Automatic annotation (TrEMBL):
GO biological process, one term: D-alanine biosynthetic process
Residues given in the record as substrate binding sites: R129, M307
Domain annotation Alanine racemase C-terminal: ranges: 238-362
One term under GO cellular component: cytosol
Family: Belongs to the alanine racemase family.
Keywords associated with the record: Isomerase, Pyridoxal phosphate
Name recorded for this polypeptide: Alanine racemase
Cofactor: pyridoxal 5'-phosphate
PANTHER family per UniProt: ALANINE RACEMASE, ALANINE RACEMASE, CATABOLIC-RELATED
The enzyme's E.C. designation: 5.1.1.1
Catalytic activities: L-alanine = D-alanine
């Protein structure tokens, strides 16, 4: 038999979320982040549904080519930038823009004789991943202004480390205001649009929106704010991850189920065996008790999640039969809930869906 597992992508939810984020940041331009294959939803599907965005953000040049191939004409920002003349040539050919985050890129832009490209200057305001340190910003900016490889205005950007913590008095909550101050000081008096906010900043730090917002997860209906699903912000899940029961079995009290005999039946009971496992991207570390929906009603994972299968507690679901639908996450079961149970974040789950899962556009 064919595996009954599907990931259904809801274009209407993507469009709804885009509009909802625009409402939260009126007058700002919106770059839709579609890196990691549109957070696992499919790059082309996501980019088409988000076609009303002002720009797209991708991790690599190949992704920019895929967006151009579906006929979208917006600016595309390549987050990883470039590190050789051939990359610059590809950026020009795709009319893509690039992040500049280290000094060797300034040298390349000064030395190139090809047509100039548009750049975003990345400033490390405290996350300490990519970007120029505040004291290097003025020099980098001046070199970009003078470089023959640079076209037009330079966008000044930074990225937040802890914007999902909204309480400005908690230890992590202090980091966003500190990053805002560091960014403002480093860029004071420099011309150009500002871009700071990821999804969580758009949702929780409206003062940090700048000229260009850069939401990713929220466009797909997901939140990384602890204890709050995207739905609590008026967002709709863009993915339903669903399979079917392959079998319904009875086990006796005391029988142990699955690998390592990790779960013991506390009474005579029915268990469901669903066609999904870590080979599909369902988290192996989802513990007993993680919710799933069988026929739309909440049930829970029991035993170890295996490669192709998982087992489900069907007490209270006497009518469940082989072939019945099992939702792993979607509208009525936020992926954030599953992620929290499995000790991960929603983005990692949608990005982790594997190639054998059939994608359906709805
Ligand atoms: C991924 C990313 C974003 C979007 O982050 P979300 O939490 O998904 O909104 C914004 N900016 C940069 C530079 C990123 O890498």
């Amino acid at each position: 038999m064919a595996r009954p597992i599907t990931a259904t992508i809801h274009a209407d939810a993507l469009r709804h979320n885009l509009a909802a984020l625009r409402d939260r940041a009126p007058g700002r331009r919106l770059m839709a982040m579609v890196k990691a294959d549109g957070y696992g939803h499919g790059l082309e599907t996501a980019a088409r549904a988000l076609g009303a965005a002002d720009a797209f953000g991708v991790a690599a040049i190949e992704d920019a080519a895929r967006i151009r191939a579906v006929g979208l004409e917006q600016p595309i920002l390549v987050l990883s930038g470039f590190d050789n003349p051939d990359d610059l040539e590809q950026l020009r050919a795709l009319r893509a823009e690039a992040i500049v985050h280290h000094a060797a890129q300034l040298d390349l832009l000064e030395q190139t004789d090809g047509a100039p490209i548009r750049v975003w200057l990345k400033i490390d305001s405290g996350m300490h991943r990519l970007g120029f340190a505040p004291e290097q910003v003025r020099d980098a900016y001046a070199r970009l202004r003078a470089a023959r490889g640079v076209d037009g205005e330079i966008v000044l950007m930074t990225h937040f480390a802890s914007s999902d913590e909204f309480d400005a008095h908690s230890p992590n909550g202090r980091q966003t205001p500190a990053q805002l101050r560091a960014f403002a000081a480093a860029t004071e008096g420099l011309d150009g649009p500002r871009s700071l906010a990821n999804s969580a900043a758009v949702l929780g730090w409206p003062q940090a929106c700048g000229d260009w917002i850069r939401p990713g997860g929220a466009l797909y209906g997901m939140s990384v704010v602890s204890g709050r699903s995207g739905a609590t912000f008026g967002l709709r899940p863009a993915m339903t991850f669903e399979t079917r029961l392959l079998a319904v079995n009875r086990v006796a009290k005391g029988e142990r189920i699955g690998y390592s005999a990790a779960w013991e039946a506390p009474e005579d009971m029915a268990i469901g065996v669903a066609a999904v496992g870590y080979g599909d991207g369902y988290p192996r570390l989802a513990p007993a008790g993680t919710p799933v929906l069988v026929n739309g009603r909440t049930a829970s994972v029991i035993g170890r999640v295996s490669m192709d299968l998982m087992t489900i507690d069907l007490r209270g679901q006497a009518d469940a039969r082989a072939g019945d639908p099992v939702v792993l996450w979607g509208d009525a079961l936020p992926v954030e809930t599953v992620a929290e149970a499995a000790g991960t974040i929603s983005y990692a789950l949608t990005c982790g869906i594997t190639r054998r899962v059939r994608f359906v556009n709805a």
